Amino acid sequence: MWLRYASRNYFHSPAVNYLRSAIYLLLFSVWCYSLWTRIVQVQVRHYMLAISALMVLWILLRSIKFSIDNTDAERLLWYFYYFPMLFIPMLSVFVSQSLGKGEDFRLPRWTKLLYLPTLLLLLLVLTNDLHQQVFSFPSGILSDREYRYEVGFFFVLGWETLCAGFAFLSMVKNCRIPHSRRIRWLPLVPFALSLAYAYMYAKNVYWVWVLAGDMTVSQCLIFASILECCIQSGLIHSNLGYDELFEATSLPVQITDQAFCSKYVSAAMQGTLPQSKLRHIQQDTVYLDDDTLLKRHKLRRGWVFWKEDISALSQVQKKLELTRDELHDTGDVLAAENAQHARWLKLTEQNRLYDMMEAQIDRQIAMLWDLLAELQKTEDQNRARRLLGQVIIIGTYIKRRSNLIFVGAQRGAISVQELRLCLNESSENICVYGADCKAIVKGEDQLTLEQATQIYDLFEAVVETELESLRAMLISIDVGAQVEVSFCVSAAEPLCGLRAHFQGLEWEQDEDGLQYVTRKLERSRR
Known about the structure:
Elements: H1 2-9, H2 14-38, H3 42-65, H4 71-80, H5 82-97, H6 115-126, H7 128-131, E1 135-136, E2 148-149, H8 151-175, H9 188-202, H10 206-212, H11 215-232, H12 242-248, E3 253-257, E4 262-265, H13 275-279, E5 285-289, E6 292-299, E7 302-309, H14 311-327, H15 333-360, H16 362-377, H17 381-411, E8 414-415, H18 416-433, E9 436-442, E10 446-447, H19 449-465, E11 472-479, E12 482-490, E13 506-509, E14 515-522
Parallel strand pairs: 9-11
Antiparallel strand pairs: 1-2, 3-4, 3-7, 5-6, 6-7, 8-10, 11-12, 12-14, 13-14
C-alpha cells in the first residue's frame, strides 16, 4: 500500500510499479506454497492451490496489462481477467462444501456440473469481439477505456455473485459450533471488512482509493483472508496447532525435520530422542528395550517417531516360551496341540453319536431290561427259552441300529449292502427264535442315514408288535428310483396301528390272515 501511495504522489517511475507487482506475485506465491505444506485434506488442498494459482495469474495479467501500450493486447488481457474472476468463486463453492469434513471427504458428483456454466460464460467473454454481448464500444474503438456493459456481463456478474454468495452462506453455516450457540467469528471478519471496502470504494473515498484502489489485488487479498481465517479457525484441516496437541496428548510422539532435528515432542515421550540415534535407524520399527518399540513414518518434510508399549505382549511371549520349554521333551508343541485338539474333536463327536444312539434306541434298551428281569424270575424252561430268543432279537437290533449311526457319521451314507447285513442278521435270529423269516434286498446303491434307519426301524416295529405270535415273515426291499419296502407277515397281532407312526404306510390283510405292509421312500435328498 505504501508503494502504491508513493508511486501516485512521489515516485512516478515504472520501476516502482514493477516492484509493487513483484511483491504482490511473491506474496501470493508464498501463500500458495504455504497451502501446499499446511492443508491436510487432499481434495481441499487441490482446490485451494488452484485458487491461489488463479490469484497469481490474475495479478500477473494485471501487471502485464498496465506495462504495455497496445490496445488490442490490453483488451485481450482484460478479457482474460474473467478466467480467475469466474473460476475463483466456483472453486470457493467446492472449498465451502468441504469445511469441517474429514480428510477422506469427497465432493458429490453434482458439483462437477458447475464447470459447465463457468466455461460457457468464460467463452462468452473471450469471444466478445465477435458479438459484443458482454461489453460494447459506442465509439467503435475496441478498448477498455470506453465501453458499456451489455446483457452478457450481467450473466457473468450474476454467476460470480451466486457462487460467492453460496460459498459465503455455506461458510456461515459451518461457522456455528455444533451442539452449541457459539459461532466462529474469525472467518466472518474479512468478509465484513470486504463489505466496508466495497462501500467506500463505490463512494470514492479518497484514502481508500489511494491505498487500496487496485481492485484486482484487493479482491485477491479478501478471498485469501477469508480462506486463511477458515484455516486458522479449524474449518479447513491443516497441520497447525501441534504445540497444543502435543501438550494435551498422552501418546509418546516426536516429530523431526528431514535432518532428524526435533521439532515437536510430547510430554509422554519422556525426553527428546537424540538426533544421532534417529539418524542411524535403518528400519521403520526397532526395539528400544524389551518392553518398548520405536516406530517411524515418513512425512512430506520430515519424520514422525512414536513409542509403543509391548510389555503385555512381552509377558505373553515369556509365558509361551516357558510353556514351549516345558513341552519340548514331549515333542513339537504344535503337533501336541493339534493332536489334543483332534482327540477333543473325536471325543466330542463320539459323545454326540452316543447321545444320538441312546435317544433313538432308548425304548429298546428299556424293553431289553424288562425281558432280562423276567428271564431271571421265570422257572419255566420253555418261557425262558422264548424270552432268551426275544432278548437276542432286541439286542441284535440295538447293535445293528447303533452301527448304522456310526457308519453314517463316518461315511455320510449307508450302502445297500450294509442294510442287507442288518436285515439278514436279524432274520437269522428270528429263525433261531422259532419263526420263519427271510429278507430280500435288491440294489447296490447308496442310501442316506435317514432312509436306512427308517427301513430298519419299520422292520423292528413289525417284529416287536408280533414278537409273541410271529410265525413267518418275508421282507422285500427294492432300491431304485424309489425305495419300496414290503412285508408279508403271518402273526396274530394286527399291524394297522403302525400307520400312525410311519407316514405313507399301507396295510392290508387277506382272507387267510396274512398281513401286507408296504411303504415307499423318496430318494431325492442324499
